[in-house]
Structure of DNA repair protein RecN:
Amino acid sequence: MLKTLSIANYALIQSLEMEPCASLNMITGETGAGKSIMLGAVGLLLGNRADTKALFDEEKKCIVEGVFDIKNYHLKGFFEEEDLDFEEVCIIRREISPNGKSRAFINDSPVRLEILKELGKSLMDVHSQHDTLQLGEGEYQLDLIDAFTKSQSELNAYSSAFQDYQKAKKSYEKLAEQALDLKKEADFNQFQLQELSSLSLKEGEQEELESDQEILENAEEIKSKIQEILVQLQDEQFGGLNILGQANTGIQQLGRFAHKYESFKERFQSVLIELKDIAESLEDEDSKVEVDFEKLETTRERLSKIYQLQQKHGLESVEDLMALEKELAEKAFQIENLDEQLEDLKIEMNTAYKALIEKGELLSKKRKAGFQAFSKELISLLVQLGMENAQVEFSHQTISPSKRGIDQLDLLFSANKGVKPQALKQVASGGEFSRLIFAIKYIMADKMALPTLIFDEIDTGVSGEVALQMVRMMQEIAKNHQVICISHLPQVAAKGDQHYFVYKDNSTERTISKIRLLESNDRITEIAKMIAGSNPSESAYESARELLKN
């Protein structure tokens, strides 16, 4: 419940504080005194958007702070989920800077407005003109019937099934879209794959072919040059190896004369061995190199095909072409198995849809079971509120599965005998709406477990016995909930456990809205003024005392 509310620098409010009691609080005051401004400030605590035009002093910051006792409202999980410090006494604060920047805090931790709104739903329910619009909306009516029939577990099961179905449907549609794209390019991909596969490419092949081509193109010159070198090395009379062999004999003899020359022997021997090895390798190469114009042409043709494919696909190597071939082969495999995969996903989607419908029908059945009981209880309350001929019923249609189920609801209402119930927007007047909404709030108070309910002139358009009955119902709600009621009716205001008076202070250059808690004599005076005007008679005072006594 709301323990304290403080407002600074907001609209006509320079500074205001109040500490509502845990039961029934009444707020009265003349029209325009600032009661609705207070509700606007409360709305900031619940996540409503801020406006710098609402600043009392445009050069100062606006601060609205509410202190809430939340120890019995099972909100610890919410705080843990949002990574917020949980305290049994929760402080919510909104700040609006002159530059238009708005900030929200929960227990001094900055939060987004979405988080503040979510928490606010568990703290306060504010009746306003917006309720009139909401009441005519199907989703709001689903909320009502779900709370009345305690269908949360069925709704959770349906929501889970809805997510499963959406996931399965998305997977099927994504693959179906991919399949369409793949099939469009399938023929072209297949042609490219065959073109690549026909070459039977091998890793490192391009470098090897280019080397072979280089040798084949110069085979005659290569063989001629090798022969020339071999003659120079191996000629029996003038060959380099023969001459070096003789020199080797001389070096060996030189070593016998002095130990110092032994190293020349080893070094020369090494050179001689290397030259012999070169000669043998050249002989081997000479046997391999052949003038083969047919092989040269074949090599050129293969390299030409490789170069053409590289240019066609914008690639630089055989390895890149092989990677492309693999990719195209995988696409071809996908297409071959696509129909089977699509069928599997379709079965999965249909199974999820069937489970969704089953959960939806269970939820719908429980909802429908509550229509008559809800209507009966609501009509009974409306009769007590002076609407003897009230009729309420639900119009129901089964629709395709949506986020909230397979039900479309429309609450139908008639306040007059002989008039068929119709959609709320078509038949209810302002006073009728106020009583209808109040009766619904009365029914739903415990079922929706709201700690604090605020009624903004809910008694508009009613008077006499109806007003008394309405305030009796408020007192009943206030046994388990904190209620704050803004009222213009003396018989309603007199029944509060606390009574706050909102007024305008014109003692300075600028009008300021203020609030004060009325004690016994002041309260009698205020009730008397509500009865008879600014100068109440003694009989008005007596009536006020009588109202406060009962």
